[in-house]
Amino acid sequence: MTRAPFLSFETVLQREGTAFHVTVLREHESLARKAIESTWPNVSVAEVADPFEERPVMAATIGLHYHYMFAIRVDRREISFLASLLETVRAMEAEDSVYVQTLAIPAERDWYTGAVEAYERFKVGEMPQKLAINKRTVGRTALKLATKTVLGAISVVTELITGEEPEPIDIDGGERAAILRDGKLRSETLAKTRGDAYDVAVRVGIVCADRARARALLRMVTMAFRELDGDNHLIAHETEADRTWRKMRERTAGLRLQRDYMSIAEVSRLFLLPTRPLQERYKIDSIAQLETGVPAEISAGGMRFGSVKHKGAEIPVYMPTGDYDELCLPRVIIGGMGSGKTTAGANLLVEAVRSGFGGLAIDPAKGQIGDMVAAALPSDRVTRIRIDGTAPFALDFCEINRSPRARNRLANAIISFFNTATDEAGAQTARYLRAAIMAMRTAKLAEIMRIFEDDAYRAECIAEMGAGMHRTTLEDYGNMSDGRRAQVLAPIYNRLDTILGDEYLAECFASDNSLDMVALTSERRAVVIDVPKAALGAEGVDLIVNLLSVKLDLAMTLREEADQFPFFIVFDEPHQFLRSARAWKAAAVESRKWRYAYVWMFHSWEQIPHDLAEIIRSAGPHYTVFRASKKTFRELAEELAPFTVEDYVKMPRYHALNVLRVGEAQHAVVMARMGGA
Q1: What is the C-alpha to C-alpha distance for residues 656 and 651, in angstroms, rounded to an integer?
Q2: Domain region containing 477
Q3: Which DSSP category does 363 fall into?
């Protein structure tokens, strides 16, 4: 025998662990899941065991007081019934449980005929009766019949004696008047027969060691249903506990003289889930953070950056790799100390290499990025370079050797190197510096000083130059007095003082051990350059990273066409090397075209120059925002919507809000636990 379809909405109230369940036939599970997710899009759904596990000591059924043609109150804005029901939890002990089962079975197609007939009787003054086997109803009905019989006999006698028909006495008038409080039926009653309906059976079971407390709990539960009083209302009838418990577990309606048909609108008032305030007040397990759906664009594979918890499931999320224009947009990773920024940067390099790309990180701290990358990738896919004051490397711009027309770019690179974020070389100094660069035979910084200081060498270089402004400028320099030369060279010497005054950097100034950024960024591997502040000092780190930044900017356009795959360049704690800000301004808007993807990781926007911050923001970067200050969130509030500052403050450790410029919308926002596979 095929069992009729049903839907059983089941609430289990407990001091700790109140839960809500839906039971359906196995063949309807998929349909039920879709319906639940459509009705309550933010809930998590999981299969569980039968919640009615303990035998109740007391039970009751709850049904309509009047004929089912009359409806209970329907107001979608009200959840007072559920709030009143949950108030029962306050009176419960730790071992108590309250079961509330609302079993709904689709009604027959002609269910409404009884309601229509009842309505016709009601219109002519009769009160439609509901048949039920219970002492109170049977007694009341019997009394009514007896009263009508007696009054009927009296009316006959009166008519015989007086010859006049007596005034009729309306026995049903009191009940009709109780329903017609406002002189008319409520809209939910009048509309009840216009749609489908369900045959509804509501059962309550109380699990409690103390019968007196059990009765009090049953009373509280049944009174909660009076919040739904309308033209009709729900009343309780105590039943035999074992039999009721068996029917609850079997999910069967049982034998009844008359069914309680309810419209979909009425049933929906019995199928309620608690709001956030109710969840917090009664300690109901809930999702603490706002959860958003995971866009298809970031769940189909690519560079994994974390996982998103959605409806109880952990869903891996990825940066798509199919569109290089999207992939190579700049990235900003913001977060407080210990939030997970460094790990996110290391994971980015690891995922880049696993995806067939490459990456380079400059780490001024203790080598944590390099250690994590080395632990995650094979040794032949990782290059570690440590600039720590032991082995010198060349302060040069060897990258220009790959370009036949790189002199102008070299001049711009070196002038940029000599400039700082707040102090530019004067126009006159820049002119002589550019002329010396055009005369260089190598790409080493040291050669510039040789050209200015060695008259014979300068003459050899001038002899190899073609006619033009740069040759004339150097010839003019050769004819200057010593005082005039000192005036021109002073700004250059001032900038070289940091190098020449440091023993290690002075060795680098004379070294031939070049770091070729074109070669390093043309390999599909992870490169980590450690520049420990503890070994080099703050000024040394700033100067060396500035040199590396300029070399990267120089290399950006010099990679072979075949080697222009996405390459990620990660700067951790960029506030420690703000000399590089000038190079970064150009990189923020130009690097994507050359498949360089710049990444800056810092604590707050205040740590970088305001104009650089505005340029980065205007470039439309990807954001990863770990928990930091409320000010950080408010500065990005529009980007981070629909998440609020409250969601941000409550965000768990190692989680971050991610804004990705992907897909048609170019704006996917998710809260993810950060970390790769």
Answers
A1: 8
A2: 394-514
A3: E
| Residues across the chain | 677
Name beta bridge partners: 22.
9
Structure tokens at 546: 């500035």
For 391-419, the DSSP string reads S----B-GGGGG-TT-HHHHHHHHHHHHS
Distance of CA 88 to the CA centre of its chain: 34
- Higher-confidence residue of 110 and 170: namely 110
Co-location of 276 and 399 in the same domain: no
Let me know whether 111 and 254 are in one domain: yes
Task: Choose one of 247, 281, 315: the last residue of a domain.
Answer: 281
Express each pLDDT in 627-667 by its tens digit: 999 999 999 999 998 899 988 998 998 999 999 999 887 88
pLDDT band for 413, please (50, 70, 90 cuts): confident
Q: Under 8 Å CB-to-CB from 669, ≥6 apart: which residues?
A: 292, 639, 640, 641, 642, 643, 657, 658, 659, 660
* Pair 583, 319: CB distance under 8 Å: no
Is 538 part of a structural domain of the chain? no
- Asked if residue 192 belongs to a domain, the reply is yes
User: Rg of the chain over CA atoms, in angstroms?
Assistant: 41
Which of 514, 547, 563 is where one domain is finished?
Answer: 514
Domains identified in the chain, total number:
2
Residue 573: inside a domain: no
Domain annotation covers residue 378: no
Please tell me the distance from the alpha carbon of residue 512 to that of residue 394, in angstroms, as a whole number: 5
pLDDT digits (tens, 9 = 90+) for 555-587: 998 999 999 999 999 999 999 999 899 889 989
DSSP single-letter state for residue 444: B
Residue of 668, 667, 662, 645 whose CA lies nearest to 290: 645
Helix H or strand E segment including 242: helix 241-250
Question: Is the same domain home to 89 and 228?
Answer: yes
pLDDT over 90 for what percent of the chain?
A: 55
Please indicate, yes or no, whether residues 198 and 55 belong to a single structural domain of this protein: yes
